[in-house]
């Protein structure tokens, strides 16, 4: 009975910590364009240690698996320059408290929210059409590149080299992905709290 009460108490505390974490992360991401380690690293350690204390080895596996999933889902976008290291560590911190299953749902919802933010921003700044055109150019260049690799046709390669994205629309734009992570995490927390599938 006491152990169950302790687990419920730590779950409630973890949810509170998670809410505080995403609120502070959104603040930093919007106003300073970064999510500092002083927010994410302590939460990661807290998640793993408390899971071990209250649930033993299974708790540690629960927390570490969530951490690794959170780290992995946004690693490729990070490598490609689509988001910062702070965003990846924030998702890993979320994972250390939610476990792998809820972290997967949170990441999917985050990706949707992030896409909406990007579309909304480009429409607001008048860059939406240009962004779509550039995406089309990138896609065609990839096709031409693989055709060249298969055929070694110099004409295909020249066409590949001649295609360029518009600099007016291709410039790097900062997107506060911490906001998208916050949206995805809050939806998962709410769904889990009210027992909605698949967030149980």
General description of the model:
- The chain is built from eight helices and no strands.
- The chain is mainly α and 200 residues long.
- The chain has one domain.
- 28% of the residues are buried.
- GO terms for molecular function: aspartic-type endopeptidase activity.
- Keywords: Membrane, Transmembrane, Transmembrane helix.
- It comes from Youngiibacter fragilis 232.1.
- This is Peptidase A24.
**Rg:** 21 Å
The amount of beta strand, in percent, is: under 5%
> What pattern of helices and strands is seen along the backbone?
HHHHHHHH
Helix content: over 70%
Shape: elongated
Pairing-aware structural class of the strands and helices? mainly alpha
Average pLDDT value?
Answer: 87
Largest beta-sheet characterization: none
The DSSP helix count reads 8
Domain tally: 1
**Terminal residue distance:** 22 Å
Low-confidence region ranges: none
**Number of β-strand runs:** 0
GO molecular function: aspartic-type endopeptidase activity
Pfam family, one: Peptidase_A24
Domain Prepilin type IV endopeptidase peptidase: 17-119
Transmembrane segments: 12-31, 43-61, 67-90, 102-124, 136-153, 174-194
């Amino acid at each position: 009975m006491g152990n169950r009460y302790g687990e419920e108490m730590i779950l409630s505390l973890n949810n509170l910590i998670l809410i505080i974490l995403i609120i502070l992360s959104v603040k930093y991401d919007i106003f300073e364009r970064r999510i500092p380690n002083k927010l994410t690293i302590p939460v990661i350690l807290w998640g793993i240690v408390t899971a071990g204390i209250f649930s033993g080895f299974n708790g540690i596996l629960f927390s570490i698996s969530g951490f690794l999933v959170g780290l992995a889902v946004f690693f490729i976008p990070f490598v490609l320059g689509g988001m910062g290291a702070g965003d990846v560590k924030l998702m890993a911190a979320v994972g250390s408290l939610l476990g792998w299953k809820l972290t997967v749902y949170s990441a999917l919802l985050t990706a949707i929210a992030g896409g909406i933010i990007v579309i909304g921003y480009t429409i607001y700044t008048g860059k939406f059409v240009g962004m779509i055109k550039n995406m089309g150019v990138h896609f065609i260049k990839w096709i031409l590149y693989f055709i060249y690799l298969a055929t070694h046709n110099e004409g295909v390669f020249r066409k590949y080299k001649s295609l360029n994205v518009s600099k007016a629309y291709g410039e790097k734009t900062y997107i506060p992905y911490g906001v998208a992570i916050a949206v995805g995490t809050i939806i998962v927390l709410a769904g889990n709290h009210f027992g909605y599938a698949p967030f149980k």
